[in-house]
Amino acid sequence: MPTTSPWCQRWRAGKHSWRHVRDGGFDARRYHVDVIPDEETGKAFVLAHHYSRSYPAVKVQVGLYDDTVDGERRLNGVAVFGVPVSRAVLAKPLPELRPFTESVECSRFVLLDECPGNAESWFLARCFDLLLDQGVRGVVSSADPVPRRTASGLLVMPGHVGTIYAATNALYTGRATARTVKLLPDGTVFHDRTAQKIRRQEQGCEYATAQLLALGAPRPRPGCDRARWLREALAAVGARNVRHRGAHRWVFRLGRTRRERDDIRLGVPSLRPYPKRPDPEHTAA
Fold first, then answer.
1. C-alpha dihedral over 51, 53, 54, 59, to 10 degrees?
2. Mean pLDDT in runs of 10 for the chain (285 residues)?
3. How far apart are CA 188 and CA 52, in angstroms?
4. 169, 250 in Cβ contact below 8 A?
């Protein structure tokens, strides 16, 4: 969708849909926003509904709650702010802020399909209020513009350009580094960091291994070379190499006033025009 698009993207069970702002229906009195105290609640929601089917390292997770359903508050959206795979993700665009404390990454942002149009901009603004209370002054977020399909051809991710970020006054700072990624048959990306967990048997390696086993990889034998097993497992499940031109990078400078926001120096140039279309569908590398 163009950055000026009146359409709002929603998710349920990993499938996207759209809401038009003219449909209206959003009433802030119906909702409240709060920090989710236990990680498992936010993690379960993201794994159930976000297209990536993965959960990142988290610093704070924030929930959008509907207070009007059966007298109980119901979780309708989750924003995850956390720790990126590299310190440079934060330090490069926001060099004067301390990574992981004064600057964080918005790594997941997902609202259910029942949320009315315009809910995401209100939710994001409330998230930033909570982050400011915790001393956060900068947020970096990425939009993946590469559409993805399963091995059978089903579209599972249409490609994002960061429409909500442009609409909420984020600064567009270009693309991250181009790279080749591993695409699994279910359309999800098998990240380099995930592969490293398996090779080094780091925390989270069990979940990453189970992901490949569920796709038909052979079970690793006790004491085997995990790097060799990983190569064989990726080949067995039919992982594809796909060239990725780099995700779009957006930066929010947080402050109670415009002057506070403007005082935060960018380490990279702010660019125009904003990206308007996802990338063409990939070809195998």
1. 60
2. 47 56 67 91 89 83 85 87 91 96 94 81 93 96 90 86 86 92 89 88 86 92 92 94 91 95 95 89 59
3. 6
4. no
Distance CA 12, CA 49 (A): 5
State residue 25's pLDDT score.
62
Q: Give the number of other CB atoms < 10 A from CB of residue 190.
A: 22
226-237 and 192-200 helices, crossing angle to 10°: 140
Termini Cα distance of the chain: 26
178 burial (CB, 10 Å; 0-12 / 13-18 / 19+) is: exposed
Confirm if 255 and 137 have CB atoms less than 8 A apart: yes
CA atoms within 13 A on the CB side of 180: 7
Structure tokens at 70: 């059966």
Model-level pTM? Answer: 0.81
φ, ψ of residue 237 to 5 degrees: the values are -85, -10
Residue type, 222: P
SS (H, E, C) the chain: CCCCCCEEEEEECCEEEEEEHHHCCCCHHHEEEEECCCHHHHHHHHHHHCCCCCCCCEEEEEEEEEEEECCEEEEEEEEEEECCCCCHHHHCCCCCCCECCCEEEEEEEEEECCCCCCHHHHHHHHHHHHHHHCCCCEEEEEECCCCEECCCCCEEECCCCCHHHHHCCCEEEEECCCEEEEECCCCCEECHHHHHHHHHCCCCHHHHHHHHHHCCCCCCCCCCCHHHHHHHHHHHHCCEEEEECCCEEEEEECCCCHHHHHCCCCCCCCCCCCCCCCCCCCCEC
At residue 43, what is the residue type? Answer: K
User: Which residue bears the tokens 């702002």?
Assistant: 21
